[in-house]
Amino acid sequence: MLWVALVIAVVVIVVLSVVVIKQFSNDTSDSPAASSTSASATVQSAPPPVPSSPDDGVVSSSMSCDGYTASVDEGSQPGWHAAINRFGLAYAAPPDWTVAECGVRSGWAKPCPAGQCVIRELGAVATVSNPACPKQNLAMSGVAGSKNPDIRAALDEESALVAPIYTQGETVPNVELGTVRDFTIGTRPAVQVVATVTGIAADDCNGPNALHSMVVTTVPNVEGSVVFLISLREGATASPKSDVINEMVQTLRSPA
Length: 256
What we know:
Blueprint: E1 3-7, E2 11-15, E3 19-24, E4 44-45, E5 57-58, E6 62-65, E7 68-72, E8 81-83, E9 91-93, E10 98-100, E11 106-112, E12 115-130, E13 133-146, H1 151-159, H2 162-166, E14 174-177, E15 181-185, E16 188-198, E17 206-217, E18 225-235, H3 243-249
Parallel strand pairs: 4-11
Antiparallel strand pairs: 1-2, 2-3, 3-7, 5-10, 6-7, 8-9, 10-12, 11-12, 12-13, 13-18, 14-16, 15-16, 16-17, 17-18
């Protein structure tokens, strides 16, 4: 059920089946606000995804960040955690995932002559640690922005980053893109494609395979488009179930 109400002319509340999002009216910027300067930001070489500090974890059915508050409907998704950032796209992460605090960023980078060059950086980060190597992540999800307002073109741009993300040294993996799926998040068109990545350089922590889900949509008052990514890496001793991709994508919500 979807309903919109104005409470004391200050807070607009959007209630959906899984995630509740509140956007405060004093956040009037037409573009995403700057992330919190008090939180840490880390981007390092990949694979695997960059770990977030355990001290930055949030275990809660509600999260507030940059003028938005997202809450999980406990009746629909008991134990799941809400995640949202300055782009206003909320999602819920499963009970065994850890959601980082507002402003924490993670992602992938590659070596450059001057140090590290960012391939993709994410906010609203949720992770699962690798049981074989607890300082690394077996799975990671998060939200990012794209300057391209065309969601299909933005999806193509995102797909081009998959091989660089999982390249390790001189080993470039094989990337097979699935069929593009068209759907809606509320009233907004969205597109998704899942990449199957094979031939990744394996080590004591990780196997040679991964799944990389990409969703692109638009959010009211956010320029360009907004991207939701899920990375599931094959571990040395355990691997995330692929079903979690669909389960998490189904929780995506944005303000009306």
